[in-house]
Amino acid sequence: xxxxxxxxxxGSPLAEEVVVQATELALQCESQVLLLQVIVPVRSVMxxxxxxxxxxxxxxxxxxxxxxxxxxxxxxxxxxxxxxxGIDVQCVTVRGLAAEEIIRCAKDYGVDLxxxxxxxxxxxxxxxxxxxxxxxxxxxxxxxxxxxPGAQKKQEEKPASVQKNKGSGQx
Length: 171
Known about the structure:
Blueprint: E1 4-8, H1 13-29, E2 32-39, H2 61-84, E3 89-95, H3 98-108, E4 113-117, H4 123-129, H5 132-139, E5 144-147, H6 151-157, H7 160-164
Parallel strand pairs: 1-2, 1-4, 2-3, 4-5
Helix pairs in contact: 3-5
């Protein structure tokens, strides 16, 4: 079904939750996997200074190289359990704007499914920080599997009576 899957990771525990489900899907489809982390080498600011945001901070080349090395080590660490299950995994780090680089790498590496976690931001947080998942969804022509971290945990936390009747039309 899917020959090559791209899994985006940003190093956060939320994004890592997608790896378990993506591993199972890769095994079922006998897919190759590309683990991708994008290093964003731009000035970073949380908002206008008049709202108390941090000032712009330029990332130095040394900082970016160190960040890339850390990202490579992280991706290799993440790939190891997948490889132990027999999945062909390639790890890639790139610099650029996250959504643009995800779409570019998907094309360059011949990916036929993008898998990513959504942080589930809304309101002001989404407006200020944006949504990489939204942008990829809007701009890519590939199928995209979005995983909402914590969804499984919320399901498990429901009272036993609700879980037992799930799907039976009873509440």
